[in-house]
């Protein structure tokens, strides 16, 4: 009689565990379709629109000192679409790999040779330095991220 009672207890415990697990997982499973829809950015064309607008604004032989989130769409336009091979996109990683120095080092090296543009986040320490040192022209873009043309050094 004992083995039968033990088997019943084990079976009951197993049913409780399975029921509890199902109750905990059910809300997540029910929420999956709406979560997937909210996370789906396949129709988001913001980066593409921004990159195409930027490439249209850039002067011939321009240098763009950028960062990853904006470098990649620019590279896509340049390499995948074959547009604007004259533009040199200097990503933060490029600066490190090619030992180009900081953002202002790249600006200083290129300013008297080529048109220079920068893409920095608002409040970025580099942007503060750029605004202090250089005359700039800011272009409104399809997204909140602006494109900044370095016009020259500020006179003191």
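-> sequence recovered:
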């Amino acid at each position: 009689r004992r083995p039968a009672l033990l088997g019943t207890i084990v079976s009951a415990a197993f049913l409780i565990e399975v029921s509890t697990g199902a109750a905990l997982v059910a809300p997540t499973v029910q929420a999956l379709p709406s979560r997937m829809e909210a996370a789906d950015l396949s129709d988001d064309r913001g980066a593409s629109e921004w990159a195409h607008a930027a490439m249209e604004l850039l002067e011939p032989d321009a240098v763009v000192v950028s960062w990853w989130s904006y470098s990649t769409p620019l590279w896509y336009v340049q390499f995948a679409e074959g547009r604007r091979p004259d533009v040199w996109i200097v990503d933060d990683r490029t600066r490190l790999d090619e030992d180009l120095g900081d953002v202002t080092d790249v600006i200083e090296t290129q300013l008297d040779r080529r048109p220079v543009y920068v893409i920095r986040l608002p409040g970025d320490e580099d942007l503060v330095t750029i605004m202090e040192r250089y005359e700039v022209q800011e272009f409104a873009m399809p997204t909140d991220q602006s494109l900044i043309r370095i016009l020259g050094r500020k006179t003191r």
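The chain has a mean pLDDT of 89.
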